[in-house]
């Protein structure tokens, strides 16, 4: 892959990098290099961890600080310039619904990812009779594991006996095959109360077949939930059409809402009754109660129909407007479909460039690797239908008691030379080109720096 090819693709596919604040060598605290001065922008391939800040976000936040300064509590009902704080989240719902493929009444903007996951499991995990187990993945994100483990304990059950964990076949692939998931459901359907999986696996970058897995599990009346932290804003979703029961996500990765930004939930309309004694018992609060009666302070919980009825407290105004400013850029780009179209091209370009490296080995070759020659493979599935923007690279030789792995040295070299990505110890680096602000030239440069990193390894000296 050549730089000329990258330039040609950049002329073909739009980018809105000018709408974002892109860090420079100086702002990150990096020293200039032979090819970059302190004012040059870094190559930021870390949107899978934290998206870049839209330039419009600062003004959006300052507008709310000005409202607080000018009117104090009055801005809840009498905002000087925009939406009153009482309803600050409501205009954002229509912008988010098409990104996750939901009806507007199935969406609520609230809380944080793990707190929402716990709240939804309280409502939906109902072990009855022999159906007590939760099916999820081995090596899931730790926060998910902790939530699942303790939700089982809260029901008075033994987690060790009520967790079914999926993992890749040893020596076959680094990710879980869809058929293995379906087979496990088939074999254990009389014992499974809930399936809870990530839309995209944080470590490998695998995009699960949400539609097929959900449909298969629903045949056995199993509740199906999804942690969409790495999927929302990354790949198109159709949660309503797929019959997903519930889902939650964070917004600070591909939705660029800022560190610790507000989360969101999806609750299928099949579970949205607000009729007394028919609604799903839940972790409740006054913001989920009938808004026309909210300030009557009644001892009568009458949840708003749909996902809004799962809200507990009023959302952070600053968080909500930060999310809104980013979603407006998504709309400007043309929506999630246009983003995905470019993302596939961008990630394929990255993959092909990596595979042309003299240090690349195929996943099949990596299972039998025995030499100490420095190399890497790609953990992420090769099919675009099975991945989003992220490619996860596994480095050899791997960390062991006898020899330190090379990942740290590679990672530090990338960063020192202005390629910002992230590591997952002990041996993985994740690269995620984001179509909103990354270019094909960014990808080309990152692979060139990676190649140079191998050449500078102390192991080769």
UniProtKB/TrEMBL annotation:
The modification N6-(pyridoxal phosphate)lysine is found at residue 253. One of its GO terms (molecular function) is kynureninase activity. GO terms for cellular component: cytoophidium; cytoplasm. Its cofactor is pyridoxal 5'-phosphate. Signal peptide: none annotated. Its EC number is 3.7.1.3. The keyword Hydrolase applies. Keywords: Cytoplasm, Hydrolase, Pyridine nucleotide biosynthesis, Pyridoxal phosphate. Pathway: Amino-acid degradation; L-kynurenine degradation; L-alanine and anthranilate from L-kynurenine: step 1/1; Cofactor biosynthesis; NAD(+) biosynthesis; quinolinate from L-kynurenine: step 2/3. It is an enzyme of class 3 (hydrolase). It catalyses: L-kynurenine + H2O = anthranilate + L-alanine + H(+); 3-hydroxy-L-kynurenine + H2O = 3-hydroxyanthranilate + L-alanine + H(+). Pfam families: KYNU_C. GO terms for biological process: 'de novo' NAD+ biosynthetic process from L-tryptophan; anthranilate metabolic process; L-kynurenine catabolic process; L-tryptophan catabolic process to kynurenine; quinolinate biosynthetic process. Its main location: cytoplasm. Pyridoxal 5'-phosphate binds at residues 113-114, 141-144, 227, 230, 252, 286, 314. It is found in: Cytoplasm. Belongs to the kynureninase family. Catalyzes the cleavage of L-kynurenine (L-Kyn) and L-3-hydroxykynurenine (L-3OHKyn) into anthranilic acid (AA) and 3-hydroxyanthranilic acid (3-OHAA), respectively. Homodimer. This is Kynureninase. It comes from Wickerhamomyces anomalus (strain ATCC 58044 / CBS 1984 / NCYC 433 / NRRL Y-366-8). The lineage of its organism: Eukaryota, Fungi, Dikarya, Ascomycota, Saccharomycotina.
